[in-house]
């Protein structure tokens, strides 16, 4: 029986022990490989029913049909490798398999698979190794070693090449393209995406070490491959090394994007590394990984070793799925580990993943926020289509200029049997202020003046302009409302005055007005440029008139902030059985979304997310009352939910409860439930693991533009060491249950921060008690 295995002796490794084809998706996703340019599920070389052989190149969106939305196309399968032994097709679903282990080394990004396979008189030991290079953007490699443990010589046939017969769950995004053999050694296939007209060049070479080796090239429809024939004597081995390159006509690291140039460049690259072995190329990649791990390492001394492994697992995936090389691209909700959400970017980036990069890799963060600046045209397009002004960011984004790409229809309605309409693309509008939140945090943490002046200001004003046009005046209440929306809790559709939406829109407008006053006084030339482009002279007075009349839901007599106008009047049901189940959406086996809409059921943090992100607006007592009211009504059906609850409960002194949330979040992908990750890893949840560690237990936060550090460790942790960048300074913090020590290089600027209502300055090293006394 297959299961996930984690060992205290190796906290850089995740392992599957035993093979069961019913659970292929688990390790395909959580052991996905990538380098930000290319990402690939770790499907096996040989094929199985139920597998998902997905590999993606960032930013290469295509529409299969004019009635469908853009998605990242599943590129032709380059890992494909069939083995036939004595005329028998090798598969783990027949014969006996012993010693099966599939392992991902998080430290260097190498995937390995080992086992012994016996069938009839055949007994072979297989070892598979593969990696996607962090040192060479376009390079992938695979090595297979087959050792003959049989009593007699075996005859082996290996078919290996490029298989363009794969699809995105049936949607074929490529024409077949030219294919052929170059210099008698290099296989090439050159398909093009059907709608977006992006050219791809796949280049493969093999190195085979075997006895009595012969070979021939073959082609089929959408296929080109080599057929190798050889023998393996008893106690001898054969080795097949596969070297692969992927390039496209939108690559930003080459000037010549015609297919002929890309073909020549790929061949030259392959020839240039011909003398390097598999292990030498892997070592190159490992060196780049070492640089990543050396930047602000996190060390958790815990009673449960899974905590340390979890933060490494999270950081690994945050880097393999982030296209740091090109600001025209962003992070998909499943990274590049599966077809889930079609590779689209959500608010997940700004609220859950961008903070990691803001505080640890500001150069990557800059690329991610620049994507939103480049997306202003698409945001203008969406606003105009809806009859609004300014920039309304799409709920789902692909190419930054595309505008809205959310599908219209989704899962089956359990009651009607019809497809459920996905309203998020129409009325889930808090994404616009979420983008501003991410940009503001980037500015506060990095102090990047150039980005601020050239790009950020425009985003901040243009989004406020949208909200000004979106507000609806209620004459009876003499206030401006935001009606017919979906809030952060996506189980409430078509509601009025969602707390998260209204408060963040108010903050967006208020911030823009404060910024305008500052620019007018201190940087009039910049204000004049923005005024000329955005008509601020007309827009700002209108925003100023509306600001104080934007309706902000206020606490009831019991201290509860209504999630929306009607939430608190809805029916309450016991959610115990749904919260106890593995997996999500069990609720919808009993109810449809229309029924859930009429109950006090919350999918993920809404009011509580508001209190976490904008904690300066609410006192501790109010946060505590709302936490105790809303959490029992929250199913946590979204992987985004647990991290918010973990951080907020830690802030409120409920550290034991917080740690339970942490462990549940840790288990979303790493846990033993073998169907949790079939559609891909949960990217936002992995950002949440870092946030729970550094924001929650490390206590780091930006409050109204000021750095705050107030740690609180779970009982299971004896020490936490982490680091972060702030205003160009690298800071390291070590936390115990009694105190915390901050340090930085003494050749930089002093760092001011607040802790437990005290103001402090870090010059070189500073020790504070957990009560804030030095």
TrEMBL record:
A GO biological process held by the record: carbohydrate metabolic process
GO function terms (MF aspect): carbohydrate binding; glycosyltransferase activity; hydrolase activity, hydrolyzing O-glycosyl compounds
Binding positions for substrate per the UniProt entry: 347-348, 603-604
Residue ranges constituting the Glycoside hydrolase family 65 C-terminal domain according to the UniProt record: 701-747
Residues forming coiled coils: none
Residues covered by the Glycoside hydrolase family 65 central catalytic domain: 312-691
Transmembrane segments: none
Pfam families cross-referenced by the UniProt entry: Glyco_hydro_65C (PF03633), Glyco_hydro_65m (PF03632), Glyco_hydro_65N (PF03636)
Keywords: Glycosyltransferase, Transferase
Family (UniProt): Belongs to the glycosyl hydrolase 65 family.
PANTHER family in the cross-refs: GLYCOSYL HYDROLASE-RELATED, PROTEIN-GLUCOSYLGALACTOSYLHYDROXYLYSINE GLUCOSIDASE
Protein name: Maltose phosphorylase
Lineage: Bacteria, Bacillati, Bacillota, Bacilli, Lactobacillales
């Amino acid at each position: 029986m297959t299961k996930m295995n984690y060992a205290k002796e190796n906290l850089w490794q995740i392992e599957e022990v035993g093979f069961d084809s019913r659970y292929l998706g688990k390790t395909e996703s959580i052991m996905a490989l990538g380098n930000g340019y290319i990402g690939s599920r770790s499907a096996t070389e040989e094929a199985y029913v139920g597998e998902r052989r997905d590999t993606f190149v960032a930013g290469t969106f295509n529409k299969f049909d004019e009635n469908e939305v853009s998605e990242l196309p599943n590129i032709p399968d380059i890992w494909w490798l069939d083995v036939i032994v004595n005329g028998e097709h090798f598969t783990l679903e027949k014969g006996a398999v012993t010693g099966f282990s599939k392992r991902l080394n998080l430290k260097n990004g190498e995937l390995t698979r080992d086992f012994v396979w016996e069938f009839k008189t055949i007994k072979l030991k297989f070892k598979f190794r593969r990696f996607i290079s962090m040192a060479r953007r376009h390079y992938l490699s695979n090595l297979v070693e087959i050792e003959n443990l049989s009593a007699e010589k075996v005859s082996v046939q290996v078919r290996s090449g490029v298989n363009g017969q794969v699809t995105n769950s049936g949607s074929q995004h490529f024409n077949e393209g030219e294919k052929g053999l170059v210099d008698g050694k290099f296989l090439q296939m050159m398909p093009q995406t059907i709608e977006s007209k992006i050219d791809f060049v796949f280049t493969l070479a093999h190195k085979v070490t075997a006895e009595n080796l012969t070979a021939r090239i073959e082609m089929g429809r959408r296929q080109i491959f080599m057929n190798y024939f050889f023998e393996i004597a008893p106690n001898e081995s054969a080795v097949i090394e596969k070297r692969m390159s992927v390039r496209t006509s939108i690559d930003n690291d080459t000037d010549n994007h015609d297919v002929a140039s890309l073909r020549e460049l790929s061949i030259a690259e392959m020839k240039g590394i011909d003398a390097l072995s598999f292990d030498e190329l892997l070592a190159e990649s490992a060196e780049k990984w070492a640089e990543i791990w050396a930047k602000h390492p996190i060390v958790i001394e815990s009673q449960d070793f899974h905590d340390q492994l979890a933060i490494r697992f999270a950081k690994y995936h945050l880097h393999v799925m982030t296209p740091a090389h090109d600001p025209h691209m962003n992070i998909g909700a499943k990274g590049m580990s599966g077809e889930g959400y079609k590779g689209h970017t959500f608010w997940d980036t700004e609220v859950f993943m961008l903070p990691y990069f803001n505080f640890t890799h500001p150069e990557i963060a800059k690329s991610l926020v620049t994507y939103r600046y480049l997306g202003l045209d698409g945001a203008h397009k969406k606003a105009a289509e809806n009859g609004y002004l300014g920039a309304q960011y799409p709920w789902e984004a692909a190419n930054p200029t595309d505008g809205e790409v959310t599908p219209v229809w989704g899962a089956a309605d359990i009651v009607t049997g019809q497809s459920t309409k996905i309203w998020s693309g129409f009325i889930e509008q808090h994404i616009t202020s979420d983008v501003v939140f991410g940009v503001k945090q980037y500015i506060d943490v990095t102090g990047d003046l150039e980005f601020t002046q050239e790009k950020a200001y425009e985003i901040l004003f243009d989004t406020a302009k949208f909200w000004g046009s979106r507000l609806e005046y209620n004459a009876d209440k003499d206030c401006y409302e935001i009606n017919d929306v979906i809030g952060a809790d996506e189980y409430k559709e078509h509601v009025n005055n969602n707390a998260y939406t209204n408060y963040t829109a108010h903050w967006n407008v208020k911030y823009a007005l404060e910024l305008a006053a500052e620019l007018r006084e201190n940087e009039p030339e910049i204000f004049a440029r923005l005024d000329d482009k955005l008509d601020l002279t007309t827009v700002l007075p209108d925003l100023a008139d509306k600001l104080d009349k934007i309706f902000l839901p206020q606490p009831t007599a019991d201290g509860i902030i209504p999630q929306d106008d009607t939430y608190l009047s809805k029916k309450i049901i016991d959610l115990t059985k749904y919260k106890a189940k593995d997996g999500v959406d069990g609720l919808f086996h009993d109810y449809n979304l229309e029924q859930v809409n009429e109950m006090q059921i919350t999918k993920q943090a809404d009011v509580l997310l508001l209190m976490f992100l904008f904690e300066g607006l609410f006192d501790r007592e109010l946060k505590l009352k709302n936490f105790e009211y809303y959490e029992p009504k929250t199913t946590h059906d979204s992987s985004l939910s647990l991290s918010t609850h973990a951080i907020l409960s830690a802030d409120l002194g409920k550290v034991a409860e917080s740690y339970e949330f942490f462990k549940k979040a840790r288990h979303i992908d790493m846990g033993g439930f073998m169907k949790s990750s079939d559609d891909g890893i949960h990217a936002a949840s992995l950002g949440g693991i870092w946030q729970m560690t550094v924001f929650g237990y490390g206590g780091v936060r930006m409050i109204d533009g000021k750095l705050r550090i107030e740690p609180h460790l779970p009982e299971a942790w004896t020490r936490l060491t982490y680091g972060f960048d702030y205003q160009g300074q690298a800071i390291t913090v070590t936390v115990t249950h009694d105190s915390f020590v901050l340090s930085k290089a003494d050749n930089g600027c002093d760092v001011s921060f607040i802790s437990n209502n005290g103001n402090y300055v870090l010059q070189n090293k500073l020790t504070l008690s957990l009560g804030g006394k030095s």
